[in-house]
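Entry details:
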Amino acid sequence: MYTRYAPQNTPFPFAVFRIVSGIGDWNFTHDFDEVDVQFSLFSQSTSESEIGTLLTKLRSLYDDVELTVAGYTNLFMQYDQYWAQFNPDENIRQYVVQYNLLLQS
């Protein structure tokens, strides 16, 4: 798993994660940070089984997990959505999986 970008020529399968948005103190009464975290899973297998296994493992690790983040209390990490993409020219399958994370400082 890599942060934001995988190095060029990284062997398949692999995953990349990044923060796609963050909103601080959304109700103006508490110190909250709401963050959307996105995982991109990549496979070059000709079947869906490899990337499906990656999705299953990712969800088993992160669905409703309590993270330790310095300076914050984790309120929740919740699965939000996923979508699939496919590049037939290079036979690359990609699942993009998004989680919503709520932290309180």
Remarks:
- The beta strands are 2-3, 14-24, 32-43, 73-87, 92-104.
- The chain has a mean pLDDT of 88.
- Residues 2-104 form a domain with the STM4215-like fold (CATH 3.30.2000.30).
